[in-house]
Records
---
Amino acid sequence: MQGRGERRGILEVTRSAEVPLAAHALEAVKGAVEDSGLAMADIDGLATYPELPATGHAVVDGVTIVSVNCMMTMLKLPNLAWHVQVETVNIGGAVQQAVNALLAGVCKYAVVWRAMHNPKGTYQNLPGTYAQGATQFTAPYGFGGPGQGMAVAYTRWLEQHHQSREKMATLAVTQRRHSHMNPHAYFCGQPLTREDYLSSRMVAYPFCLYDCDIPVQGAVAVVLTTADRARDLRPRPAYIAGYGQRLAFEVAGRIGSLSSYMEGGRSSSRLTWERSGFSPKDVDVAQIYDGFSASVIYGLESYGFCKEGEALDFIQDGRMELDGELPLNTFGGSLGTGRIHGLWHIIEGALQASGRAGERQVKDVNVSFVGASAPIVQGTTFIFVKEPY
Amino acid sequence: MSDWSKVTRPIPVPNEWTKPFWDAAKRGVLALQRCQTCKHFQHPPYATCVQLHGDRSRVRARQRQGRDLRLHDHVPRGRQAIRLGRFPTRASSWSSTTRREPCWPANLLEAPYTDAKVGRRVEVVFEPLNDDFTLPQFRLARDAK
């Protein structure tokens, strides 16, 4: 696979929406383009995944989502040649589609953004009086948001492997500490102790408050181009050595089982390892999606970083620290930055590979792994490398 | 017409594929769809077999009353769910064991969540929501181990 260059975006995260989401997305896109040294007129490709994951709220383009059409309207790019708005593979799929478009030669410089809105009121708004469609089999039983569904699989994992949820405190506390080195993170400067985690209220057992990323409004963006073009730009790029996406199917309308998570992660990472030629042992730093903490556990195991049932032990003893055996979610993860989905994981993976992660830079990074979404329905994985591949 | 104000759970709105399920539940029967081609049971109900998605994969409602039902995963209710749904505080939930089996979330009644263990047998309890709808629920089977 040929290498692709990558440039990072600038981002802004707030708890509530003071300005329309489109303004956040536009700021992120402009920042990414400026960071790359390109002019906006050079951008000829656009891609995003615009979903609003909050249920029971209106989808309003420019306010609660930012579609490709909305971005085209704002940017009025004179040389636009390609765009896509993905649905089945989350934001990682948008990045992968941009890579494909660049390799196909249908565009030269593509921007991918992810903009997330935090609606007023309850984020997961259960149906009030009536439950229609698929919710008629979940809402009457009290299942409203994805966290409750994911908690089912996590409970299964804990019981199957005779593990205790208390060990997850290490993940939450370490990622919070990492977020203090990320000035854009929502929780930058707000410490979290193990005691805070263990005493926090339960949201959906075994998920407590700090197992769940906080809903925010914000946006991130990244510029992608081919390796030969990236060499002429500033600053130093990262190179994509391979990617994969989930291939295992999931039955429609079902709450995902633990086996679905594991099969999804294995199928996506297998492609990534095969295409890149690397293995988990080669990875110097990893970003694994953590909208809910258990996704990291499924990821570590299904991607091959440790054996099944051992992930909660794997992250102990400093192993996920910046100087540990596998530095993990070095930008704070979604638990530290807020709910922006997986593009921030992808950007951090690229920053670590290019040596541009600043205070949180891991030493001597050559191979940087990213699992950009929960390894179930929409799982995607990437390998970034320091040198052209 | 029911007195909807007395109902605390969202009321299902059936469509042509889910109506047989709710009609059967009202009669005290747990009726799952079964593909006429590959013979597997599925839930929630859908227009075609979700394994085959072919035009020959017709599905029919078949009765399956409390046999071979076992707890797979369980999630004791957290504060959020109780507040939003106003459900029994001792309830927990389950889903089936593999992705090829029928599966749906539900509440385990009449037991603390600590009794909800993977593999335990459960039996169906039919809980009226109002005059029109009955919700299939579950409790530990009398001889549950």
---
Amino acid sequence: METARDGEPVVYVARDRLLEIMTWLKDTPGQQYDYLVDVTAVEFRDRERPLEVVYFLRSLTHRADVRIKVELQSSDELAVDSVWGLWHGADWLEREVYDMFGITFRGHPDLRRILMWETYAEGYPLRKSFPLRGRFSRSEQVRQALNANPEAHYSMEELSIADAGGDLPDDMRERLRRGERGTVPNSE
Amino acid sequence: MSKRTVELALATPGVDAEGWPARVPLTAPRGGGEEQEPPPDLTGEHLLVNIGPQHPATHGVLRLVVELDGETVVRCIPHLGYLHSGFEKLGEYRHYNQIIPLTDRTDYLSPMANNVGMAMAAEKLMGIEITPRCTVLRLIACEMSRIISHMVWLGTTSIDLGAFTPFLWAFQERERIYDLQEMWTGARLTTSLTRVGGLMADIPDRFVERLRHFTRTFPKTLAEIDRVLTRNAVWAGRTQGVGVLTGAEAINYSLSGPMLRASGVPYDLRKDKPYLGYETYDFEVPVGEHGDVYDRYLVRLEECHQANRILEQALDRLPDGPINVDDPRVILPSKTRAMSDMEAMIFHFKQVMEGVKAPVGEAYVGIENPKGELGNYFVSDGTAKPVRWRIRPPSFINLSALPKMAEGHLLSDLIAINASVDIVMGEVDR
């Protein structure tokens, strides 16, 4: 445990015990961190340092804040347990972290990209290995944009993509289950 | 329950044998002819409707995919990202002062409050204490932003629900604040007001006078809007009991700002984690009790009154003195000094070329923006550019409760609920 420069306590927890500790923080009288302010991730310029997933918690009862961090070695699998079951506000926040950093949240009900589009193939934009102008060359990006079929976004398949359940075609459900985010025609 | 989607192909008339467009029969043929088919039984059939991204009622480039049973919303799936500009990534390649123009463009309906939030986070990281005059001026900027943001909200929401007049009144008031912003910063929208450690400019002559005139006359407009809307049967009918969230749900969905307070949770960062000396001002925090669209309207209307009160008090106590901290490492020397004094020139050069170095560490500052809690989170590794700049976007998080609120309501209520969230897509997508 340490203190950040703004005076808030920062607590590092082990990845395996995250959910247990979060549940304890939320439900224990005297703690009651019932409000999830934000979920984000940090990658340092020093590649040796692990990625951090940061949870900002607040207790509205006690008017207290705490910051929980989980360290993820980049050589390891980038995955933590989802806290969606505790705070539904984590839904989009975790999706954004997944979208921008490629960190998987186990147990999240609907982990899809949120700001980038479903077939985005360049990787995870906020990673330090991702160049500011994108991974593909400008000409490749233009070519893909021209080849893109925006009509497809309004097809019945795309419209129902968020259902994450029943009425998806079998092959598509299989593809989503495997974690593939779709392919861009003529990439590579 | 079957979830098969009904697709109704538009009747395309085609051409007849002679090449003329065939007319669509307006009435079904009677008698004679073949047997009429009975109308299909549509009970339990669902229809997928796509709203946006280019739709005036979605307040920007928000796209909603709605599954309807008749006119009732069964599911609502927001699709975002049409305005994604990668501000957080860009911030990692810029000096702290160069990030300020990016904050204008996130929540572009309250640019000055965003500038303040970002500068406060950077100052917290660097351990800078701003001057008393700067504190009061920043507070004035925040409350002016609250008024314009709520005025835009009021205007656009009333127009969504069919009332045109309040829109004109609200936008006239907003225009007056925009004139003041232009007077102060030279820009109406992209103000870039703050600098780390101070402000980009002091207020000009006659600013105080004109802002006082505004605070005197603004309550009259609020009273007119109140008279037109609050007891209006159409307005109440469209908003009361629509999009209800209980206090516990609002907390669970991490809502903030007027959305949280309309659900009966009395949490306001200005009272509970005071910054800029808000604890020394006399103002109330309105709290709703039903958590519906109507209560959000009442909360925002009352917040305008309170913002006006705070502005009056701030103008009364505006102290004289410098607006920038006396620290040549963070504040650029004046042009004259930079050109005549060797030391000032060195500081000028170092700041422009190298930027302001922040110590290793991290800082999060949340401020009560018109939309909710705007958080700025900086992580520094000791260089002049942050390792990570995170914006906690209030309207992004508030919008995530939209599917929950819209379920079971009519499609027309979805428009009212979406309007009540008060989203700005620039901030949602960043």
---
Amino acid sequence: MPRPSDSSRPKFAAGCRWGTHGEERVVLFPEGMIRVEATGLSILELVDGQREVAQIISDLAARYDTADPARIREDVLSFLEKLHDKRVVDY
Amino acid sequence: MAIVDKPLALIAELTHRCPLHCVYCSNPLEMVAAKQELATEDWIRVFQEARQLGVLHLHLTGGEPAARADLKDLIQAAHAAGLYANFITSGIGVSESRLGELIESGLDHVQLSIQDSREDRANWIAGTKAHAHKIAFATAANKLPVAFTVNLVVHRQNLDHLEEMIAFAEELAPNRLEIAHTQYYGWAFRNRAQLMPTREQVEHCLSTVEEAQKRLSGKMRIDCVVPDYYARYPKACMGGWGRRLLLIDPAGQALPCHAAGVIPGMKFDNVRDHSLEWIWNESVAFNRFRGEEWMLEPCRSCERRTQDFGGCRCQAFLLTADATATDPACSLAPKHHLVTDQQIAQRDSHIEETTSWSYRANPQ
């Protein structure tokens, strides 16, 4: 599947939602759960079906103003694509 | 003793009552009578204890879970406890309004079983006129805000028109299609000769599924696994004995899997007498095949022992009469011939409609 575009509004796929596993925040889906590392968590917390991809990137760029914007963009697009393939995120 | 991991999922067999009589039902041949079933408050306590123990997913199954009038209350309690609630159903007895109530109570996901694309064949497998109700259920599930999976059970009697069944599943429009090869326990083991596919059917199935996955990518996810009788290595049954899952039967007995009751000498503790935590950590049944102490060769020195745990203990027993044997589904098993002999028998026998199989009975 293609990567999301700047105007895509990613959201959790049907049956996917947040859960907790011990102290850890995880994503539950019908057949199991996935653990998300710190960068992924900060991206996924902005996935709400409202924000566009461009907005997610600029929000993260504002939060991590020392990071390279091109790197943030690449992290967001590749992460969303990966979760789309796992059917956790739709866009 | 091995370090005990915490369970991730609880399978709750709420009842063995079911309006269907599927010839491959995974329920045990000896079923729990309605009057022995756990009460609502027992189940609610079990759900709360499960979450405290670390369980994330609750799979509500049966029999037909909708045969319990308190299903809505149970889902509500599961949701309140913080569990992800999955309802596995035949669709019978679940109108659109009832499904709507279950969703409002906190249901996360529903899985509908489908027997065939052709109504007469589907009803023949189920032993009752269920097919039309399932289509109605799928229509309702699509109108409502719930994640929806169709589970298509495949075997010798329907694999020759798998393309047609996938097309039918597309019309039902689930988020996900699970193509589940029959596993040979319970009623399916009794009917194995009529249900086990040929190698040719399995290979055709895998290429058909691959094609459909490509064609439907982004629209409907399709999951399918190679049935273990035709795989090179055995399945890591239940993610390993007493490692990931526990199952509570309708009377409150705690089992490491659906079929564990077939292994002679097993004693299962009951949630009426013990906490779930005690059962998970201390019960003889859950500890019986944990770790590697029980393993025989070739498992004991096999590098795959930490991946598949020697395969399925119940299948090992059903085929070899020794629950500690290497699962004969494994190509390295000393008794692998028990599986290959069956493959040959399936290849050499005709696929034909039979009236000689056993329909799943209902409990008292």
---
Amino acid sequence: MRLLEPVDLGSKRAPNRLLFGPHETNLGIGRALSARHVAYYERRAAGGCGTVVTETASVHPGDWPYERAPLAAECFAGWSAVADAVHAHGGLALAALGHCGGQGSSAYSQRVLWAPSRVADPVTREVPQEMEEREIAAVTEGFATAAALAAASGLDGVEVNAASFSLLRHFLSGLTNTRIDAYGVDRLRFAREVLEATRAALGEGPVLGLRLGCDELAPWAGITPESGEQIALALGPLADYVVAVRAPAYDQFGARPDGHTPPGFALPLAGALRRALPAPVAVVAQGSIVEVTMAEQALTDGTADLVEMTRAQIADPELGAKLARGAGEEIRPCVLCNQRCLVRDPRNPLVSCIGEPSSGFEWQGEGAAIDEQAGAAAEGEVLVVGAGPAGLEAARVAALTGWRVRVVDRRPRAGGVLRAAAAGAGRHRLELLADWLEAECRRLGVAIELSTSVDPGDLSSRAASGGHVLVCTGSVPGPLPDADGSVELRTALEVLELAQSGRLGELAPGPVVVDDPVGDAVGISVAELLAAAGRPVTLITGDAVAGTQLSRTGDLAPANTRLARAGVRIVKRSLVVDVGGGVVRLQDRYTGKEAPVAAAVLVRAAPALPDDALWDSAPAGARRAGDAVAPRTVYEAVLEGRRAALAIGGRDSLADP
Amino acid sequence: MSATGRYRLLFTPLALGPVVVRNRIVFSAHLTNYAQDGAPSEQHTAYYEARAAGGAGLIVTEEHSTHPTDWPYEKMIHGFDPAVIPGYRRITDAVHRHGTPIFAQINHNGGQGSSMYSRLPLWAPSPVADPLFREVPKAVDAAEIDEIVDGYARVAGHCVEGGFDGIELQCSHSSIVRGFLSPATNRRTDDYGGSLENRSRLLLRLVAAVRRTVGGDVALGVRLCGDELIEGGTTLEDALWVARALEATGAVDYLNTSIGVATATLYMIEASMQVPPAYALWIASALRKAVSLPVIGVGRFKDPLQADRALRDGHADLIGVVRGQIADPDFAAKARAGHASWIRACLSCNQECVGRMGLNRWLGCIENPRAGREAIALAAPPSARRRVVVVGAGAGGMQAAIAAARRGHQVDLYEAQDQPGGQVRVAASVPSRAELGDLVRNQLAEASRLGVRFHFGQRADADLVVAAGADAVVVATGALPERPWWAGTAARVLDVREVLEARASPAGRVLVVDELGFHQATSVAELLADRGCALEVVTPAMVVGQDLGVTLDQETWWMKAAARGISETTDTIVTGLVEREDGALSVELQQHTTGLASERVVDWVVCASPPRPDDGLWRELRDRLAPGIALERVGDCVAPRRAHAAVIEGDRVGASL
């Protein structure tokens, strides 16, 4: 396939057309790339990625956008180690270089932000300093110095960021550059000077890439696809490749949105650049490209020369290798949830993946943990109760590590709550993870027995005959409020299950109140579903904003926009205190004032409780994982399912919850 | 009167079991985010030592985790890891050099945490999700309760080995012990749930186990919550019962107090200036009446006389002064020496202390640039005394003058107005923000003591500065209001500053436009509502005053707004304004999420908009000052930001001359 064919980037040749793009990981130590980074990138190179681009390093110490943001001057050793690790697997390794300008933060540097003009970032509201020529020269020199350092470290080149969080883009855009000097009259001037200085510092051998925001989704003054193409025409020939990015000015993470935005949304930008730019300049397509078929199509139809599949390779570090051995169907899907891989968050979470929780934890050996046990001789059988994400992952890993495995579930389908969650608006790709887990289990010979119940006696006899028991029975709904029957009471899960089977119409006709004390994707997606089904919907949140927990996935502002457009009424800072008489009574958390909302249905999106009915009578030595321990997210379910499987027979002492 | 004679009890010794404190001023436990990789840092040592050197009677460190399942924020001290002991020893040695006892607070936060860092299930009495973290915890079983007890004992042992004089158990606002004590989070039906006796069983086991470990030479204290301020939570009556039970053990040497739940009502725990001083003293007072153990009172004590008064009135035996000693480490020493007016009084603004904690950043202070930086050595004194001219006596200029004068330079400070303070003084003119004005008072007092020569009412133009013949010039001329584009020349469109400076007096219907997201819009709205105006605040952001949440001012704003009938409109921009013939203003609004347009007819519009730097003098001087004369600028004339940015810039520049 085209994806696996080599491609030239300047004077270097990448072994294939798959690129792992720069992204925040929080794997750094201080502002240096760390051994954690090296292990993370090496796993992708070993897994068949042709070109690895490391986490964007700031080229000037005044740019310190997040606590663990790499600083080029401190990256030499880390870059060297990444270069060696990637080269050992035949890949190319490049350093991303950047400066966040007014989209940075003064919290760590305790210094003023620099920007072309004093236009406050719409999210942080921080007013930057308008750069004087002295500061412009310092940043330009910073790029050159960093590029020279990267080349000297043994890397194959650098990629200059002019897309999201980028001072270069701020200079290119009429939204953020209102200067009247030479850098405003010619808004390309700064980027051109940076690219020329970078090229001069690199010399002719190393690769120079340009990550370019070609559409800011703000056509009144921002970069548009048309002006983006003109910018690319002017700047592209200064580089060996150009990555075509949609970088919305008013949505920080809009370049890597979650599943509410269809995959491949930036392909037209890449196609336009491919048509416009001279052939020696390679064009890289990106933008939620998570399916190999889409990537291959983009290469064969002339949209691009390479494809960036970053999140796809966080979800499956062996994507390229699996393709190369003809096992494409074994690739673990990226579900575009952004729950664990988007880590530009002040809490500094480490990059990871709900389906592949060892991503980001390669440095502590987790990436190889399953492989290390794969050859072990396991004599015996494992019974897994529950075929949700915890149970299926436990079964998959137990099978991979040599056990005979049987999974039983009382429901007619495997996949547990993943199936229902996938019915939520914009969340349909979650189903792919359930499909993959089930298919992998079957491929590995796991016996999956559905519509089958087990009782404590089954577990005891199993244990008595030397078998191992894993309890992954998931959760039961939390309590619903008392009511007089005038308002139909439902859990969010029930509504999702109705939607999944096309039975939303079974809900009592009339207005719906969604009570969402959590603020994650569940309550929001249920409100969206019901609004789309034509119901008048009121969403109750105790917070000042609906969906507060979505800030982690980048969907907070987009979700609120969708809710507003769908006509969902949001009552903030409120709690449900009473239900009855066709009315849900709300109370303002801070004033105590009460107000009624007419409702035919009240949907409660509250946390569930562990289903521990079976656990309470489980035999000694049984283990449990996932929601049966405490109802949380898919990430914990998969992580604990895997740990439980690896711990069977005392083979691994890792955290038995 | 003798220095200590002003205070009857504040500077008298007191025995806390085996430990005698020399005065009643406690630097009680608070988070700092100074830990590195789970261990205490050099910054911890320097931070606590500065307060010991400054005369604090007792220091209680931030909490140390007693178990790997407790890792709620990244920079927590992992007390359960023996690797912490050398760091403990560094801290205690440094503090003991000044004759100050130091206790360690040990804790398990239970369900008030996150599995983000530990990747282990949270432990709690019952599977009740915390209101802030919203993660369902695992209900601990009997073996796990034993493990918790063992963990506390082990960590207490580490603390004793590390040289601490006492142990404090955090059982008040964020703790698994609180979780067990509170009916809101304890739904157990075993020996640890139900009756108060059962709910306190864990606490009493911990006290016994810790006392057994540490022996009789180490003090043991318990911090209790007197009122959780939540539905179904712990009440004062419960707290008194628990206090008596603790006293009855004979193992406890003192009680500390607290109010609220950190993850539900934090705005009442680390209250800003919106909450009256000593607001939580009633809890200490009630406990002190119930038991004969020494009791620590806390909550907005920022003045030594106020603290002494609380002691004299019998409300408490010791007083926790945290923020007061962050702002001025020499709080106690200055009071004892009879120089209370020299104390850099805390503003209770919460901007850089509390406000940075939730954002995973190191603890600092708006007016003490050394806070959080104590471990960084000060630069060597300059070789020559230089003559420095500072222009502008706002927060930045004053701090530059202070820093330069502290370095021995001769400083002349010019200010066009007849008094110092700039925008801080204006902001503090709103009654509920008056304490911010202490910044002006503190800076003026310090600058005066250091011999800065003030020239108030004298506008320094370039001629004056050039003629002054200084060796160095610092321009701190601030910023000027800038009218939004849509305001045109309408006379009834004002900036917040114009209202607060009483240059106009809006009446009737007023629309406040919040583009800054901090106190500007909300405090002017409060002020005008109190004058009888009808108020609406509109903002393009998702929340009015979006950053008030960081300083814990949002809840009080909501209560005040509700009481005054101030309405809030979010996600909305101003698209135009027309002056009507009747003198009223027609304001066109657009909800940017939906594009929906609307109109408001009001009498006045007040804008909280980014001002523009007043940098004319700096530009002129850049061309006119002789080479060799240092020219610097600080604060809003670089880029308009908040007071802290001006203070740290002023400090940095002043110290660098």
